[in-house]
Amino acid sequence: FLDGKGVIMKRLVSFIAVICLLFAITGCGKSTSPEAEACVRGYFDAFSQADFAALDQTLDMKKNFYVEEKTEEVDKILRAIGEKVAYQIVSSTSTGENTAEVIVNLTMPELANVINQFVDEYISMLMKNALNGANAQSPEEMRPVFVAILCDRIAESGTKTEEITIPLERKDSVWRIKTDEQMLDKLTGGAVSTLRDVHDTAMGK
Question: Which of 7, 66, 86, 92 is the S-S candidate for 107 at Cβ 3.0 to 4.6 Å?
């Protein structure tokens, strides 16, 4: 590789991590209602609208996803995913004074397959570009091409519908989704575990 396998793979992790950004939001403080169901609705609606304001308030993008700021590219990717996301709230149940569960039928593009396919194309294109020597394109020049490819793969992907039980808790009068890696993986069509595997490969694990 032009600048080492580890560097290229880390760039790849950084690039495709935007897929998971909005799903990693754990707070729903912008909801107009303190009800848990309204929190969940606000959560998914924010994704479909690429609501970066909500994201910026609740997530350290640089620390968690190597993404320092919102960009037009991130917006394009999130909107490409959002076009294929649909949800229907089945029920909501109070499980305690400050806890609740909301059951959702969630339809998501199969992002695990998208990521695996994109990884192969990404590495292949970088290797070919490296062989161009002095005429090789810079990462900045190649980035729009990768964005377009990723959006195309998302648009072409199949979808999967799964019933998910989302746990919530209320703190300081604000309902929040309680997330762990397994829950985030369900919310992202398998993207979290796939992205973790890519990261581990990049780090030589």
Answer: 86
